[in-house]
Amino acid sequence: MDITTMVLALALGNLALSAALFFYAHGGARALSLSTFTVAKQCQAGGWLLLYLSAGGVLPGPLAVVVGYPVLFTGVALEAGALWEASERPRWRRVAFPLLALSVVLYLVCYLVDDLGLRVLASSLILGGFYLSAVAALATGWRGGSMLRRFLVLAMALLSLLVASRALLVLLMPQGWSWINNAMLPMLVSGAFYMLMLLGGFGFLLLAREREQQELARLLVVDALTDVPNRRGLFQALAPWMALARRPGPPTSMIVLEFDQFKRLNDSYGHPAGDTVLRALVDVCKNELRDSDQIGRLVGVEFAVLLPRTGQDEALLVADRIRAAIEATPVKTGRAMVGLTASFGVTALRADDSTVSLFQRADQALQRAKADGRNRIAVAPPPEAPPA
Prior knowledge:
The chain is an alpha+beta fold and 388 residues long. Helix 3 (61-86) runs parallel beside helix 5. It starts with a helix and ends in a 9-residue tail after the last strand. It is elongated, with a radius of gyration of 31 Å. The longest helix is centred in the middle third of the chain and has 44 residues, at 178-221. It has twelve helices and seven strands. The strands form two sheets. A five-stranded mixed β-sheet has the order 2-3-1-6-7, sandwiched between helices. It has a two-stranded antiparallel ribbon with strand order 4-5. Strand 4 (331-332) and strand 5 (337-338) form a beta hairpin. 67% of the residues lie in helices and 9% in strands. The chain crosses the membrane at residues 64-84, 96-114, 120-139, 151-173, 185-208.
C-alpha cells in the first residue's frame, strides 16, 4: 500500500469513527470528553482528506497543505485534550490551545521557507508531541489502571516515538540514510498513524465502557446521595466481622441511628433541602469515626455504623460523641438553618448472631431510644444466661 492510499485510509477511518460517535450521542446527554473526542476525529478526518486531495491533484497543493496540516494538528491536540478531560484535568485547554497556535505558526513558517525537510521535521515533531501528550494523559491512571490502559500507554508511546523519529532522522541526517529514510521510514510512520487511529479510537471507547462498568459496580454497593455504603455494601463489609465474632478475640460493635423527625424537615423545606441536610449530617458522623469504622445507609434516614475491635461500652461513647456532634451542627439550606437530632441503638456482635438477629437487636434498642424521648442512646440488653 502506497502513502497516498494510506492517507485515504486514515481520512476514511477517522470519518467513519466521527460519524459513528456523532450518531451514538445524538439527542442525548454526553460527557464533555466524548464531545471533544468526536470533534477531534472530525478534524483529523478533514485534515487527512485535504492532504489526500492535495496528493491526488484534486486541490491546489499549497492551499490543501497549508490548511490540511493545521486542521490535522488541531484534531490530534483535541484527542489528547479529550483524554486529559477523561482523566479529570479540565484545565488542559490553558496549555493545549497556546501550544496548538504556536505549532501552527511554526509549521507555516517552515512552509514559507519552502524547505521540505523543515516541513517534515515540524509536522512530525508536532504530531508526535501531541500524541505523546495523549499517552501522558493515559499514564496518569497507570498505578490503579487496568491491563487495557497499560497496554494503550505502552503501545501508543512506541507509535508516537516512531512518528517523532522521522523528524529526528531529518534533523540528524538531512541527506538521507539509505533506503530507510527514502522508503521504509515513511511507510512505517504511515502505519504508525493508522495504528494510532485504531488504538486511540477503540481505546477511548473501551476505556469509557470500562469506567461505566466500574461506576455501575460501585453504585451496587454505594448510596448515590450520601456516598456511603448502601445496605448491600454494609452487609458485605459486615460479613468478615461476623465470622470473626465466632472466634475468641476483640469484640465488634454496631450502632444503628435514625435522624429524628426528618419527615417534618422534608414537609417544611422540601426534599432538596432534606437531601442537603442528610449529606451534611452524614459527613458529621464520618468526622467522629476512625478510618477503620464504616457508616452505611440502611433505608431512608436510618444508618448503621460498624465499629471493628470495639466493645459495647466503647461503642456507647462513640454513639454519644456522634449524637452531640449532630445536635451541635445546624445545616444551612436554601431557606434556613436547620438543626436535627438523632436516636441511637447500640449492640455488640455475638458468636451466634446472624444479620437478622444483629439488626433486630440493634433496632429494638433504637426503638427504645425513640420511645424514651428521642435524641437518646439505648443499649441492647445482654444475652440471657443459659439455664442451669
